[in-house]
Amino acid sequence: MNKILLLEDDIILAETLIELLEAENYEITLANNGKKVLELTYENKFNIYLFDVNVPSLDGFELLKQLREAGDITPTVFLTALNDIESFTKGFDVGADDYIKKPFDFDELIVRIQFLLKKQYKSYTNNIHLQNFKFNTEKNELYLQDNFIALSAYELKLTQLFFKNINNTLSKDYLIEELSYNKIISDGTLRVYINKLRKHSLPIKTIKGVGYRLSSS
Predict the structure, then answer these.
(1) Structural domain boundaries of the chain?
(2) Alpha carbon of residue 115 to chain centroid
(3) What is the DSSP string of 142-211?
(4) Roughly what angle, to the nearest 10 degrees, separates helices 172-179 and 187-198?
(5) Which residues have a Cβ under 8 Å from the Cβ of 3 and sit 6 or more positions away?
(6) Of 69, 66, 90, nearest in space to 78 by CA
(7) Can you list the pairs that 152-156 forms with residues at least 24 positions away whose Cβ atoms lie under 8 Å?
(8) Nearest Cα to 86, choosing from 67, 110, 63, 61?
(9) Environment class of residue 150 by beta-carbon count within 10 Å: exposed (0-12), middle (13-18) or buried (19+)?
(10) So what's the pLDDT on residue 124?
(11) What is the pTM (predicted TM-score) of this model?
(12) Residues of the chain above pLDDT 90, percent
């Protein structure tokens, strides 16, 4: 399930968005001020940020500027009533991937979110193919020759990371950090999850002294 961090201090709008986005199978975390977002992004990983601009503590523009300077490249959409060209330009200057003016059509927002997720996976379809495997980025489901493969939450997270980075070596430290959102994952536990994925015939190679790679060859 893709995770969205929503920054919105209008409680009625926030509740509406949460209800609609959860109905589309997204997991939503709400923050009502910029400083809370910094705390949440330090402790958690998200697939998409949806930020209002005029919020307490730290406005959306300055917030995203700080996140980008810290190396956070999470796709970000500004949802704001600011509709002047100066604000529009500033939004992209600080690192936004998209900018939607309020009021907006909810269906349009969903289309834009789906586009950014596909772009994040370097694919403009919902499916990433590797040999006889297919990973659906919208549903977060893995198939082998169209047969669904049931995975645990940690196995699924690893699968997402590998399919997002086919033929790229992912360090053990990076994978452990990405998995350690509910509990601390050890090197040994990581190996257990890797071996479980290999039992499904996923071509995961060990890169000695570095980490692992999902290889297309």
Answers:
(1) 3-120, 127-214
(2) 12
(3) EEETTEEE---HHHHHHHHHHHHTTT-EEEHHHHHHHHTTSSPPPHHHHHHHHHHHHTTT--EEEETTTE
(4) 90
(5) 26, 27, 28, 29, 44, 45, 46, 47, 48
(6) 90
(7) 152/193, 152/196, 154/179, 154/185, 154/193, 155/193, 155/196, 155/197
(8) 61
(9) exposed
(10) 61
(11) 0.64
(12) 58
The length of the chain, given as a count of residues: 217
Give the separation between CA 70 and CA 62, rounded to whole angstroms.
Answer: 12
Q: Calculate the alpha carbon distances from 158 to 27, 29, 154, 166, 172 in Å.
A: 18, 22, 6, 12, 11
Find the helix packing angle between 34-43 and 60-69, rounded to 10°.
Answer: 30
Would you state the structure tokens that stand for residue 143, as one six-digit string?
């198939």
Given the DSSP bridges, would you call strands 76-80 and 27-31 parallel, antiparallel or unpaired?
unpaired
Average pLDDT value for residue range 61-70:
91
What CATH class is the domain 127-214? mainly alpha
Specify the pLDDT at position 122. Answer: 66
* Partners of 95 in the β-ladder: none
| pLDDT band per the 50, 70, 90 thresholds, residue 43 | confident
Nearest-CA neighbor of 34 among 55, 18, 48? 55
Query: Which helix or strand (DSSP H or E) is residue 29 part of?
Result: strand 27-31
Strand arrangement of the beta sheet that strand 48-51 belongs to: 27-31, 3-7, 48-51, 76-80, 98-101
Q: What share of the chain is helix, strand, coil (3-state, %, to 5)?
A: 40, 25, 35
CATH architecture, range 3-120: 3-Layer(aba) Sandwich (3.40)
204 DSSP β-pair partners: 214
